[in-house]
């Protein structure tokens, strides 16, 4: 007999987890109904039908809610024990992850049980989701708390088998390492991701591998010369050689990026203070609408050149794997990169070391 197609349980489960609804009026005395929370002894299809039926009708009170949750947990366990297929287990795994949210130890144990039953792909998917949750939790705590989780992600990626969903997990871990200032750890994760995506048989991952090459190029840029290409907002080819011998801030930004816009007053002040000393700024806009960018530049009276491409991303942004903005790279007068994190107070300190103290603002 063909298996019935399973469905996602999320919409139904949300009604249950939200709590009990108001009780209806007391029914007239009648024969006690069968226990709707009694889990059947049938096979995977019958158990899944039982789960779906339970989720369609929210419980009437808190006691019924507890019974329903217990029955769902038991039914999910029995589906696994009944020798369900991967297709049948997909929805059950999603259900189990929601039922056991906030219980990582129990979820890990269930993932091991999944793997033992031959569902290794789903078990790995479950472990990956647990790591995503750990990363998100680490983001809310001290920076040093994120390091062990990022290292665990790196081990998880290496253990394999590597698949497309692992890319998002790896990128999340690497970007967190970048945000916490741990460039070496970020580089380790990016390099691992680049190798795994390049070696993958999944054609969807080849563009990812190329993009990661750019990220690695950017993270190893300090002390190396930088190349900048593109077209100015006026439509002219940009000539990077015109900036030889200058200290140049290459700023990747966009008008829709709040932190980017927030940096502009500081950048204008630094530009005015040090421009005659040899300080330049080159803005590389990742905007998609020319009119909005032109209006912004005119309104804010930005004095430095802006590079913008009408129908594609700036080639420099792609070459250096720019995935988040604002991103500011400071290039010294020798043409070599001084810092790839030159924004805020760090930029001011770097320029003061080069040109002297920043004059007081009028």
Task: State the gist of this model.
The chain is an alpha/beta fold. Helix content is 54%, strand content 7%. It has a domain at 240-355: Glutaredoxin (3-Layer(aba) Sandwich), CATH 3.40.30.10.
Write up what this structure looks like.
The chain has 362 residues and is α/β, with parallel strands linked by helices. The protein has a domain at 240-355: Glutaredoxin (3-Layer(aba) Sandwich), CATH 3.40.30. Helix content is 54%, strand content 7%. The chain is built from 14 helices and 5 strands. The protein has helices spanning 10-17, 44-56, 62-81, 86-99, 104-116, 120-139, 143-159, 165-179, 183-199, 206-219, 258-274, 290-300, 315-319, 345-355, and strands spanning 247-253, 279-285, 306-307, 327-331, 337-339. Strands 3-2-1-4-5 form a 5-stranded mixed β-sheet, with helices on one face. The longest helix has 20 residues, at 62-81. The chain is elongated, with a radius of gyration of 28 Å. Residues 1-6 have low confidence and may be disordered.
Indicate the topology:
Blueprint: H1 10-17, H2 44-56, H3 62-81, H4 86-99, H5 104-116, H6 120-139, H7 143-159, H8 165-179, H9 183-199, H10 206-219, E1 247-253, H11 258-274, E2 279-285, H12 290-300, E3 306-307, H13 315-319, E4 327-331, E5 337-339, H14 345-355
Parallel strand pairs: 1-2, 2-3
Antiparallel strand pairs: 1-4, 4-5
Helix pairs in contact: 2-3, 3-4, 5-6, 6-7, 6-8, 7-8, 7-9, 8-9, 9-10
């Amino acid at each position: 007999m063909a298996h019935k197609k399973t469905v996602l349980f999320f919409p139904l489960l949300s009604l249950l987890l939200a709590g009990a609804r108001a009780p209806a009026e007391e029914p007239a005395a009648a024969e006690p109904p069968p226990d709707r929370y009694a889990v059947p002894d049938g096979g995977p299809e019958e158990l899944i039908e039982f789960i779906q039926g339970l989720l369609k009708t929210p419980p009437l009170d808190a006691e019924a809610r507890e019974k329903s949750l217990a029955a769902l947990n038991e039914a999910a366990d029995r589906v696994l024990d009944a020798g369900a297929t991967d297709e049948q287990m997909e929805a059950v795994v999603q259900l189990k992850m929601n039922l056991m949210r906030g219980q990582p130890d129990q979820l890990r144990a269930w993932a091991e049980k999944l793997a033992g039953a031959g569902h290794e792909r789903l078990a790995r998917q479950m472990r990956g989701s647990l790591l995503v949750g750990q990363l998100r939790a680490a983001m809310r705590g001290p920076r040093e708390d994120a390091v062990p989780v990022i290292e665990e992600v790196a081990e998880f990626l290496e253990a394999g088998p590597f698949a497309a969903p692992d890319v998002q997990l790896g990128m999340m871990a690497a970007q967190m390492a970048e945000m916490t200032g741990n460039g070496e750890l970020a580089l380790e994760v990016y390099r691992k991701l680049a190798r795994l995506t390049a070696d993958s048989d999944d054609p969807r991952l080849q563009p990812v591998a190329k993009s990661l090459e750019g990220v690695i190029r950017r993270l190893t840029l300090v002390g190396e010369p930088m190349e900048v290409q593109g077209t100015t907002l006026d439509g002219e080819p940009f000539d990077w050689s015109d900036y030889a011998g200058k200290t140049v801030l290459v700023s990747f930004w966009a008008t829709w990026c709040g932190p980017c816009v927030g940096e502009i007053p500081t950048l204008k002040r630094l530009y005015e203070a040090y421009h005659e000393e040899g300080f330049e700024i080159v803005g590389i806009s990742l905007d998609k609408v020319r009119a909005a960018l032109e209006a912004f530049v005119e309104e804010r009276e930005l004095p430095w050149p802006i590079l913008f491409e009408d129908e594609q991303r700036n080639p420099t942004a792609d070459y250096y794997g720019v995935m988040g903005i604002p991103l500011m790279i400071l290039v010294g007068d020798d043409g070599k990169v001084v810092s790839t994190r030159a924004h805020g107070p760090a930029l001011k300190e770097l320029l003061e070391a080069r040109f002297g103290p920043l004059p007081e603002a009028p």
